[in-house]
Design goal:
Layout lengths: L1 H93 L5
Length: 99
């Protein structure tokens, strides 16, 4: 009977060792998964910040100054157009048409 008990005890010890090994391996895999999840979240956040900040930077760096120049030019053009209209009215008032 003692041989059966020894075999059972050895088998139980082997199963416990295998179980311990699997627990350690599982714990390592879970830690890796958590680490990758945290790193992925950080990179998603950085990507989101880049996607938002790059267009804002481009707007303030390139579009806004050019937009101000464009509005200035449009205002100058409107003033010139008004001046041309005044000059046209002045010429029409002179009645320089041939008779």
């Amino acid at each position: 009977m003692s041989t059966y008990q020894d075999n059972d005890e050895n088998e139980i010890k082997d199963l416990i060792k295998e179980n311990q090994r699997l627990l350690i391996e599982n714990n390592q895999l879970l830690r890796q998964m958590r680490r990758h999840s945290i790193i992925g979240a950080i990179f998603r956040f950085l990507w989101f910040v880049l996607v938002i900040s790059i267009p804002v930077y481009i707007y303030f760096q390139y579009v806004q100054p050019n937009w101000e120049n464009l509005t200035t030019k449009i205002n100058e053009l409107e003033q010139t157009s008004a001046e041309v209209g005044e000059i046209k009215e002045w010429f029409n008032s002179l009645n320089l048409r041939p008779r």
